[in-house]
Amino acid sequence: MMRAAVLDGPGVISIAQVDRPEPRPGEVRIRLEGCGVCASNLEPWAGQEWMTYPGEAGGLGHEAWGQVDAVGDGVGEFAVGDRVAALSYRAFAEYDLASAAMTVKLPPALEGQPFPGEPLGCAFNIFRRSDIRAGQTVAIIGIGFLGAVLTKLATDAGARVIAISRRQESLDLARHYGAAETIAMHDHWQIIEAVKALTGDGLCARVIECVGKQWPLDLAGELVGFSGKLVVAGYHQDGPRQVSMQMWNWKGIDVINAHERDPQVQMQGLREAVEAVASGRLDPAPLYTHRYPLERLGEALDATRDKPGNFVKALVTFA
After folding, report:
1. Which of 17, 33, 54, 304 could form a disulfide with 66 if both were Cys (CB 3.0 to 4.6 A apart)?
2. What are the backbone dihedrals phi and psi of residue 19, each rounded to the nearest 5 degrees, phi first?
3. pTM for this one?
């Protein structure tokens, strides 16, 4: 048996004792060390018309890392005891199953460090899709976990990053990761004028929207220069969006939805993230600001929604 979190209804989570899963051919079972809490968890937590309850045991968790505990038939690349990150989908539990093809070994350099692989890999895939080049001005709207990592990657690529976010703590974090300029995200038109002033009215070659709400998407369109690229990294899962197609059309911009669903591409980003963190090129430690045991998952979700103090990312960890 194992403990697993069950979303019983909007704002209601229980900890259940459920059967420990057995790996099928091609799968590994992971004894989890931890799992990150994703902003995409918030809509099910709040309750949406399309949700059904109760959810699967462990079902919101998809940012897992831990040690291989058992292997299924046909798995030769992993052994019991290997420390791994995986793209698995029931990871708010003590154990989860993952396809061996969606699992990557963590090198000794990462021993003892948390590694929520899914969002780290997501950031690297977004960066690749953004086609950022040295000398460009890049605006990043929303400096949470994704926005901070993208700030670092864009800066290292030689771009000038303008970070735009609501909280001063977020703007300070963007500076830590290399942002050249920061703008408080309070007034739509003042932000546009500030970016125009910083770019000589040329606006930005790349704008990455990392919030997943209507206003930041509207703002992103305004900040892209002619023939630039608007990169949608925010997860827009709470309803339809309206866009200014007239403006997008006039500027001749490319609009890139940077969410990857191809498993091979997802794994490419994950492997790139492992290499970058293991080599020291990226230090995500300042982003892991809050940790909770499984029994306090509800508090972790509330903190992800409310962002108290210096909050960036919550991790649910297991003893």
Report:
1. 33
2. -65, 135
3. 0.96
Instruction: Say how far apart CA 94 and CA 294 lie, in whole Å.
Output: 9
As a whole-number percent, the residues of the chain with pLDDT over 70 amount to 100
Domains of the chain by range and CATH? Answer: 2-105+284-317 (3.90.180.10), 120-257 (3.40.50.720)
Write out 138-153 in H/E/C secondary structure: EEEECCCHHHHHHHHH
pLDDT over threshold 90, residue 198: yes
Cα–Cα dist 247/268, whole Å? 34
Spell out a b/e string for 58-93, using b for 16 or more CB atoms within 10 Å of the CB, else e. Answer: bbbbbbbbbbbbbbbeebeebeeebbbbbbbbbbbb
Q: Does an H or E element contain 6, and which? A: strand 2-9
DSSP structure string for 127-191: HHHHT--TT-EEEEE--SHHHHHHHHHHHHTT-EEEEEESSHHHHHHHHHTT-SEEEESS-HHHH
What is the arithmetic mean of pLDDT over 272-284? 98
Q: Which of 104-108, 233-237, 269-273 has the lowest mean pLDDT?
A: 233-237
**Residue 60: C-alpha distances to residues 39, 91, 264 (Å):** 11, 7, 22
Neighbours of 124 (CB within 10 A): 22
